[in-house]
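Human: Cast an eye over this sequence-structure pair and say how the chain folds.
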Amino acid sequence: MAEIIDGKAIAAKMREGIKKEVTELAAQGVTPGLAVVLVGEDPASRVYVSMKEKACADCGVFSAEYKLSADTSEEKLLELIAQLNADSRIDGILVQLPLPKHIDEGRVLEAISPAKDVDGFHPYNVGRLVTGNPLFQPCTPYGVMKMLEETNVDLKGKNVVVVGRSNIVGKPVALMCLAAHATVTICHSRTVDLPAKVAAADVVIAAVGIPEMIKGEWIKEGAVVIDVGVNRVGGKKLVGDVEFEAACQKASAITPVPGGVGPMTITMLIYNTLESAKRRAKG
């Protein structure tokens, strides 16, 4: 049976370290500050925002929340971002996605100062990631890399198969694995003979957003499986992109859903905010 990679435990350990550094930074007169902007009443977004606020409070990070109505104009949102860019108390700016349809998501993300883009979505930060000199790395893939590190998985020379090609997870995690000297294959829902590609992987990172698409029988004996997917089926039950029980029979280590990658995402957001504050402290 596979070792279960406990994302909650890894996140808790990281948060203890973050809390210690925040305390040390506060003694120098700098408190890390995160601004969270929520436009509209999307239920999932409201949950995520409240979780981020709690994580900030737990770690001693100053959190400023801006709740805007769903009919807020794009110009008003851009004005707020400009104010936050200029606010010396704020080290990180997060605009919760998705945005209402009348707002251009790309324009909004590009308006955030790259120096405060703790989500790592600005084209400037994407470019730095591509060239191997990252400033901020996107939180979910960064969390995946920390989990692999904590599980003592050395990616050097390993075959990594990433299933999923989103700008938020698939593409950036592939770049991070390349930087760790892995040989990376990016697959997706239209890949021909996906089972064979997965079967050749030493490490599988599933981020395709389709419930249990990756079958347990596809997994190579002894492979490490990181399941980023969170899919609600039958109204309540949460499952990942990997057929968990069957994959456990073959993998050497695997992340559960929930309790795997999820807790790491918010932890890395706080981590990135702390790193930004440390740069501010250095002047």
Q: What stands out?
A: The mean pLDDT is 96. The first strand starts at residue 3 and ends at 4. The CA atoms of residues 40 and 194 lie 38 Å apart. The longest helix spans residues 262-282.
